[in-house]
Structures
1.
Amino acid sequence: MMDIKENLKYTKDHEWVKLDGNIATVGVTDFAQVELGDIVYVEVDTINETLEKDEVFGTVEAVKTVSDLFLPMSGKIIEFNESLNDSPESINNSPYDDGWIIKVEVSNPNEINQLLNNNDYSDLIGK
């Protein structure tokens, strides 16, 4: 059973967002980590950069593919989950908790309204 949290927002690129004030925590969804397979490396070289919504902020490398990560909301990338350097498989094991990827200081909190809710995301992936 695919895990889709009710309290999160989602992108069509299979990322999740949790907004707390003007700080957004971003990761990949349970569906995405299953599709990617075993994740072996996460690269984010955009720390302290301000990016626009939908710009590439990093990549996730799995055994069978490399996928770009797209910023779901405009803002400054203020933190990378350093534990992923040693344990990238945290994304597979705990995509919504230990496997978060970045934190973003959001420049336009209203962009959250452009993201999918849990029901819309369920429809997108056919669950």
Note: The first strand starts at residue 9 and ends at 10.
2.
Amino acid sequence: MGSNVERLALQDAMVFLGAIASGTEQAIGESANSISYLAGVNLGRKLSEGIPHTGDIEQALVYTREVLDKNDYLWLFEPFKTHDQESIFQEGDDGTEVMLVFRDCMIRQSLFRFGHTQKGSLCNMMYGFFAGALQNIMGRDSSLEIIHAGENACYKKLLVRRDHE
């Protein structure tokens, strides 16, 4: 986003979306999370069409960041390695895990401006976006799990599942 005026316009639109999410969550309960997740998957797939395919998670994250930036989505994230990790990427039983820090997130900012709690349906839309984008870019399933939701940043675990062999 180029200017503060554009950013404020985006935040105003996101506050409106926050109001819709809040009302939807009140009206239909937990189903709102599933609906938002699926909407995010569809958005991630659509916006990542034509992105080169890669099996490299680090490159896939670069491509995902480029897709977000190109579409003016303020979900700025970066991989994070704790002091006791040898690598950013950790191999687990289900696949490869990487911790991500989201420092500038339009959803978190909108929820705060509207006065709605984090970890709801709008956050699930982001999880779906990553799942859809990484499905296109890597051809693999993934999940994004919130570890900590804070005022200044969120800390999440991305799991990119192994290929089905």
Note: The helical segments are 4-28, 31-47, 57-70, 106-114, 121-138.
3.
Amino acid sequence: MHFEDQLKQATLIKRYKRFLADIRLPDGEIVTIHCPNTGSMKNCQDPGSKVWYTTSQNAKRKYPNTWQFVEVDSRYKVGINTGLANKLVLEAIETGVIKQLQEYSAIRTEVPYGIQNSRIDILLEAHQGTRSFVEVKNVSLGVEGGLGLFPDATTTRGQKHLRELMEVSESGERAVLVFCIQHEGIERVGPADCIDPEYGRLLRQAINNGVEVIAYGAEFSIDASGIRLCKELQVTL
């Protein structure tokens, strides 16, 4: 996918109030931008880091600039906009990148399902009536050795989603969890047991109960103002 606006580079001063960040432009001007990430952004918000942002032409926006990427460890680009994860996975399905999710005739998003009135990120439907329920999780936390971890903070919502996927699988339909890896340095991904041990327990239980878990990594193009999923990564437990 490509952004409507050209990516611009700046330097991070600080992130605060979860949805805001101050950056320093190349000319020295300090600007407040929107931070589209409700998570902890562990290891992705160090002051002095390079950041890339886009600018909206919507005159009604209080903060027209949106933070998109950050450089970590002085070498890896990381996508911090969690709102892109579903779009990236949807695009990767439609372009045939995610090979496990092909041969479906219809795709719908944000479809109500389950006894808890939740919404599945992506619902795939085949002509013969079979369905695949796809939940997407964005991964931006990388640690040593190319390992990516999810989540980066305790997530009761994520735990709930795993329970719902298990219910889907137990009902006889296909349930899939896709880790969308927006981090150049991640080569494999697993549960962050040290951060949310309950999520790790439920993830292993879900796999044992028939939930498929797959991961795909992204490549970044600053010049083309784009990002796309391009390769399957290992899921390690």
Note: The chain has a mean pLDDT of 96.
4.
Amino acid sequence: MGNPMSIFEGLIDRYPVLKECKDDILNAYEILVECYQNGNKVLIAGNGGSAADAEHIVGELMKGFMKRRELSDATKELIMRRDASLGGILAEKLQGALPAIALTSQSSIFTAFVNDVDADLVFAQQVLGYGKPGDVFIGLTTSGNSPNIIFAAYLASALGIKTIGFTGKSGGKLKDLCDVTIRVPADSTPRVQELHLPVYHALCAMVEEHFFG
């Protein structure tokens, strides 16, 4: 894949419609690199198809995406120290991870909070529980107006958590709450989601290249 910037340039070459988002994509990349350099994590949320996108992003960050992500010799030694047989399997097969949590997949707390308190605050409750200053919250909402994403982004910012929004062209309310909002040039939900995917694929590949290239 090459260096992070060649990955970025390849994205724009394949999807020239994203040229107007170039600065925001690069700013999002820088936020993610800073997060991981400081030992922090990423929290991600969305609804419907965007919930699937949240899970997809976690899948690309938590294991090798475009690269094998070999563990360091020091990590392998630590894993094998107690039991060479068990540890050897782990050291051989595990891969470097970029910590990320999909808030959409926490079914027990999700359904309990929806049932007992307020469905619009289900992601905010998890941001409160998981989030620490220096983490990043990624909110995906094609309209930019999904209440549960709006509340979570507002709370994240209040807690010192950086925020990245993925929306359609208008940006909705989310654009005024996030540190960076990637507003892809489309309006209908399917078209917006079609453009979100190559953007987050590129971001995941760029961050992976930075840390494991």
Note: The chain is about 55% helix and 10% strand.
